[in-house]
Amino acid sequence: MRAALRLEDFAAADRGLDPVREAAIARARSEARAEGYAAGLAAGLAQGDDEERAAIAALVESAQDLQLSSLAARAEGAAMLRPLVEALARVAAPYAAAAAFPAALAEAVAARTAAAPDARIVAFASPAATAGVAERLGAGLEVRADPALTGAQARLEWIDGGAELDVEGCLAAARDAVDRFFGEAEGRARNVE
User: Fold this and answer.
1) At a CB cut-off of 8 Å and minimum separation 6, what does 151 contact?
2) Angle, alpha carbons 167-105-111 (nearest 5°)
3) Mean pLDDT on 80-86
4) Residues 120-144: pLDDT tens digits?
5) Residue 23 burial (CB < 10 Å; 0-12/13-18/19+)?
6) Is residue 130 within 8 Å of 145, Cβ to Cβ?
7) Average pLDDT value for residue range 92-121
8) What whole-number distance in Å separates Cα of residue 157 and Cα of residue 50?
9) Which of 71, 90, 114, 184 could form a disulfide bond with 192, CB atoms 3.0-4.6 angstroms apart?
10) Can you list the domains of the chain with their CATH numbers?
């Protein structure tokens, strides 16, 4: 006995639908596909946004940690450097200024003489420095002692003006600047801790 096997043709069954029903099914498939795509896109974007926010938060935290570490290192470096800078300002700078004072005064006189060769210049220095200044400036310039001047201070006068050289004042300003710098550095270090 032989049996015949018959396969169903579903494609043919679909062809038998009326055009209104076929259009409704096509529209439903299209809408479902669009909704699925939109939902997938939204989920992907949300996941990407979450990952991006987490990465940005980690970067911000790392940058803040780096900034705090940098500030702490600067404060530590400044604290270690302070005794050396203060010693230089207190001990070495006055000796260097005293040694450079006559040369600086001679430069000021030379600059004024170059600007006005016929000007009669009188130099004033502290009583202790008068001999050294006169020797450095030469016989062509009058040098007078002024008890109001001390150490590395001098004044130049000419008919229509004058100039002052105050190496001592510059050193005092430098020491004040060093104190302010390290005081501010210590303040920043306390804020970091």
Assistant:
1) 94, 98, 126, 128, 129, 167, 168
2) 125
3) 78
4) 888 888 888 888 878 877 767 888 9
5) exposed
6) yes
7) 76
8) 76
9) 71
10) 83-191 (3.30.2320)
